[in-house]
């Protein structure tokens, strides 16, 4: 039971690797030569250094029965368009081709609800829904859409590929952090005086990891499964964080036009003067949407766990506070 994992140094990947080891799998993890390996320290993992687009990647996969392709480039900055398509789309194409050549029996590809898009007027959508690609905000979402098309095409050509679409995971090992983790960090540092009217689907990251393993064991090739749990407004999430930490949640909201104006000026004007923008325009545009999802297919067909978000939030808070050098204002 040897598995090949890409993206093991990241948030979802680190939790998946830990689960696989606990379940008795032998893990071979692909890392870039300059990757930060903190999330894999002291784990019994075979490390191979290469990249998603390496023409001989299949040789690194030889001897493995299964593949979890979790790795993805995440950025909401418009300047990173080329890197997003290079890593997410072309990288996925190369990884799937390598898996075929290495005789990988089954691949679980980590897509995202970003590839599905947002329901009209903030309605809750499931795997049967698809936003037109031109309606997806930003090149990150578009790149995940096209990467998912690569996985579907491979499955259509007879390769055994199951697709999972995590929503917004919460928990430990969020090292970068992700946008959800950044909300928690800024809350802990009392850097969230206001909130915006938006909504997301949240899930314990350990349930996301379990969903990957269940997809390997029970998923149908060519199908996609939303790995999500609870739909909450941002205000509801912040109120839960307040209960856990004892900190005061923000009391006032701000209209979307204010952060949109700041982000537009940052990214369209300041960058021309060599300044580093502070707020990605696409990120603010996404925050004006309500992104709600229905994960009942994964619960019904895979047995996806639905652990309490309060536990996931507590784990995330404890992990961030335990990080060396983390300070609260």
UniProtKB/TrEMBL annotation:
A family per Pfam: Epimerase
InterPro entries named in the record: Epimerase_deHydtase, Hopanoid-assoc_sugar_epimerase, NAD(P)-bd_dom_sf, NAD(P)-dependent_oxidoreduct
For this UniProt entry, the molecular function terms from Gene Ontology, in alphabetical order, are: aldehyde dehydrogenase (NAD+) activity
* Protein name per Swiss-Prot or TrEMBL: Hopanoid-associated sugar epimerase
| Record-linked PANTHER family | NAD(P)-BINDING DOMAIN-CONTAINING PROTEIN-RELATED, PROTEIN YEEZ
Top-level taxon of the source organism: Bacteria
Give the CC-aspect GO terms: cytoplasm
Tell me the ranges covered by the NAD-dependent epimerase/dehydratase domain, including all copies: 3-228
